[in-house]
Specification:
Layout (H helix, E strand, L loop, with lengths): L1 H28 L30 E2 L14 H6 L7 E3 L2 E8 L18 E5 L1 E2 L9 E3 L20 E9 L8 E6 L2 E2 L1 E6 L2 E6 L6 E4 L8 E9 L12 E3 L2 E2 L3 E6 L2 E12 L6 E11 L9 E8 L11 E4 H5 L14 E5 L13 E9 L4 E10 L4 E3 L6 E3 L2 E2 L24
Antiparallel strand pairs: 1-11, 2-16, 3-4, 3-7, 5-15, 6-14, 7-13, 8-12, 8-16, 9-15, 10-11, 10-13, 17-18, 18-21, 19-20, 19-22, 22-23, 24-25, 25-26
């Protein structure tokens, strides 16, 4: 018993010491930077009027829920092809009107209210600094700006790029839900459409989507984006790479029906012999129709082999209304699969033979036989685990080694705006 109580006392003492370290030591650790730069003088408290890029609790405003990348097709045949060029999307890449300001106070105010004239042209996607605006900065482990005072940002050396682009929505998209897709913007940005504020986003290496349906007008639409080089999120993005700002990745709009396949997740569970599999699917539907969904709408799922032949005798099916009205247990969570089926000895994915099937989901109105939309993605049947004896990585039960490098996205000409060929 003495040994037991001795252990408890030592554990409590250690807990107190650790708590002291985490509660008090950071006050001194954060007093200066690793390069001996003294701590900055914090701003004097005042009436709250800070921008979202200085409020850590705000990482986005009016941004859609994150989801996996997929495209909306009008029929199953187009979805099987996985060629997004035939999907309901329209690229906004290319030349945009652009105005550069070295500091936020010099940025054009209220430029989003009107169609701009006489501005420079800039490529989107593309970094400002690689196109002659501002300077590229390379830093390893030291912040590229001063003062360093999270979550506050510098205003004396913090450039802003003001962008504008016009577009016209295709006539056959009139009854659709339209999403604006921004593939990656650094470091934070505001969006306006036709003079109205749409939203705000950070997370510069993640896509941002905004539902712009209520903002659209017939004819020419004016899209305006303001990009700030340093935001509060950059305190978490500091790493050894070239520091560049602007549109890293593509911009496009996408049309989907008001009742849409918003997102979907799948799991491929192989048996103990890595032979047969259980295919599990969890779809998520959005209902933007403004009314209750009829029981005639059905979601179907089918798997196709490399020759585009279906491998299921009949597609998996589930009523759309049952997906939307899924019931969560009071004291538990739902199981992953909303739809599942057994697959006898599918071809497996491995590094030597990376075989991929094509999963196609289609949302259909059984009353009219009409397909509202179809979406697709590639599926590989594999099991990933670690050996209980050697701790080595196992794919389908076989030891597998990964060869690679830690490489931030970078091109000597375009910066972080990499093409598919470079990838």
């Amino acid at each position: 018993m003495k040994g037991k109580y001795y252990f408890i006392k030592k554990y409590l003492l250690l807990s107190i010491i650790v708590s002291f370290v985490f509660l008090f030591i950071p006050c001194f650790i954060l007093a200066q930077l690793v390069d001996k730069t003294p701590a900055s003088v914090p701003p004097v408290p005042g009436i709250f009027n800070r921008e979202p890029w200085e409020v850590p609790q705000i990482t986005s405003i009016n941004r859609d829920r994150a989801r996996s990348t997929s495209y909306s097709y009008k029929n199953i045949e187009d979805a099987i092809s996985c060629h997004r060029e035939v999907s309901r999307m329209m690229s906004l890449n290319g030349k945009w009107d652009f105005k550069f300001a070295a500091t936020p106070d010099k940025a054009p105010a209220d430029f989003y209210k009107n169609r701009v004239e006489g501005w420079d042209k800039i490529d989107v996607p593309g970094d400002m600094e690689m196109q002659g605006y501002g300077r590229p900065i390379y830093k390893s482990a030291v912040y590229p700006f001063r003062p360093v005072d999270p979550p506050y940002i510098p205003y004396e050396d913090n450039s802003i790029g003001s962008y504008q682009k016009t577009f016209t929505v295709p006539a056959n998209w009139g009854a659709m839900n339209i999403t604006l897709f921004l593939g990656g913007v650094s470091s934070c940005f505001k969006v306006w459409l036709n003079g109205k504020f749409v939203g705000y986003g950070e997370d510069s290496f993640m896509p941002s989507e905004f539902n712009i349906t209520p903002y659209l007008i017939k004819g020419e639409n004016v899209l305006s984006v303001e990009v700030l080089r340093w935001g509060d999120g950059y305190y978490l993005e500091d790493q050894d790479q070239w520091r560049l700002s602007g549109f890293h990745r593509e911009v496009y709009i996408m049309a989907e029906p008001k009742l849409r396949i918003a997102d979907f997740f799948y799991q491929t569970k192989l048996d103990a012999k890595y032979k047969d599999a259980i295919f599990e699917l969890r779809p998520r539907l959005d209902n933007f129709t403004g009314k209750t969904v009829d029981s005639t709408y059905v979601l179907k799922a089918q798997l196709y082999d490399e020759d585009n032949h279906p491998i299921l005798k009949k597609p998996m099916e589930k009523l759309a209304i049952s997906i939307i009205n899924e019931i969560y247990p009071r004291l538990d969570n739902v199981k992953f699969a909303l739809m599942q089926t057994d697959i006898r000895n599918p071809k497996k994915w491995s590094d030597e033979h990376p075989y991929l099937y094509t999963l196609v989901l289609s949302l259909e109105d059984t009353a009219s036989g009409k397909i509202l939309e179809a979406k697709s993605c590639k599926v590989g049947f594999r099991s990933v685990s670690f050996s209980k004896t050697s701790s080595k990585l196992l794919i389908n039960g076989k030891e597998t080694y990964l060869y690679g490098i830690n490489r931030p996205d970078h091109d000597p000409v375009k910066g972080k705006a990499l093409s598919a060929r470079i990838f």
